[in-house]
Structure formats: structure tokens, C-alpha cells
Input
Amino acid sequence: MRDRDSELRLAEVLVETADTLIDDFDLGRYLRRLADRCVELLGARGAGVMYTGGADDVLLAACGRPRAAIQELLEIQHLGGPCVESFGTGEPVAPVRIDSAGAGARWPAFAARAGKYGIAETYAVPIRRNSTVLGAVNVFVAAAHRAVGHESGPTSDREVRIAQALANAAATGLHNHRTHFACRLLSEQLQTALDSRIRVEQAKGILAERWQTGMDEAFEAMRSYARRERQVVDVVAAQVIKGLIDAETLRRDRGGPS
Output
């Protein structure tokens, strides 16, 4: 029953992690929750997330006991560490013992700090969407870390695979959110452009009917006025529609008969 409950919880977390198409999506809160779910499901001392989203800025999110220690273990990795290594290669970093010569040789500053905080083992998995690496998840294991339902002894391949499944779900969710946001932004821009075009056409129609002239002359009148007043044509058009600009003043500016 315990295994079945664990599998059900994993399924719930994967769905939660992939669901990012919400109006109040908060990236920082999402990354912290991802780290928290890693700690919960893997029985780890702590977990951290490094995220760039393909940009230059790096966001760090930590969860564990104490959180400040896990945050520090992420920050010190600017000198090297499993999270940075996984991010750079786009591949998982297999579990490494902190007290081994290997960890000290690969990441001396990180290994020393991790040992100070009682971390016995660490591993990392990439947050990767196809060939694009968006970040990495770093898991920190204490000497006596195993929560109920987890195996004792070294980290198992099953736990690394669970961490990678969470990272994959996060990659999907974050990619979908970025795509959704970009589509919404483009839609808003197109709607703004359409609204502007409608206002300009309406204003041209008003002036052309009043002057009994062509639409081109009406537009040139608005454009000349906009240049002189250092306004955009759309703003001038809105003023024409609302009757805030005298139409005959616009026409005289174009040199037409009063």
C-alpha cells in the first residue's frame, strides 16, 4: 500500500509541476515549490533549483533544513558544483559522495561547504526542453536522510530517475508558460495595432466627409499635425473622433482652403 501511495503522490506532483497555464503564475514561487517537492518525494536533506530560462539572469530557489544552508550551497557553485555542471552539459550528474576524493577534486569549495553542513551525497539533473537547457535541480542527501518509504544506503537509480522526471515536468511546464505568455503578448500587440488602425480610419472618414475630399488628404492633414505637435497619428485620430481638434485647423495646416 505504501508503494501505491507513493506512486499516486508522484503522479499528483508531476501534474502539479506541469500545470503552469494560470493567470497568477509566479516564477519564484513555482521554483521554490519544485525544490520542496524534490525534498518531499526523495527524502532528501534539501534541494535547490537553478533557472535561467535561456536568459542571462540566474534564479535560485532552495528548500531544506536549514533553508539558508541550501541557499548557500547553490550560491557557492559559481566556483563549481553539480548544479552548474549539469546545467553546462545538459546531462545528469550521478550521485557523488562529498567525503570522497572525487568530490573534493571536482568542486573543492562546494565539497568543503557541503561537508560542513552534514551533506553526505549530492546529485543533479538538468531542466531541459529538447536541446535547450533551462536550468538544473540539485539534490542534497544527509548521512541519515531516508524518510519513510525510501531505501537506506546510497542514493538509488530510482531516486535519480524520480528527480529527472520532476525536472522534465518542470521543463514542459516552464516552456508552456513562456509560449503562452509570448502568445498573449503578441495577441495584445495585434489588438492594439488593430484598434489604432480602426481609429485612424474612422478619423479619416470624419474629416473626408466634412471636407468633401479624399481619404488621403485627410490622413496627410492628421500626419502633418502629429509631426508638428510631436504626437503619434493614433492620438491625433482619437482627438478628431472626440472633437478635441478643430477640423478646419487641421485643413489649414495642410494649406487647404478654409
User: Anything to note?
Assistant: Confidence is low (pLDDT under 50) at residues 146-152.
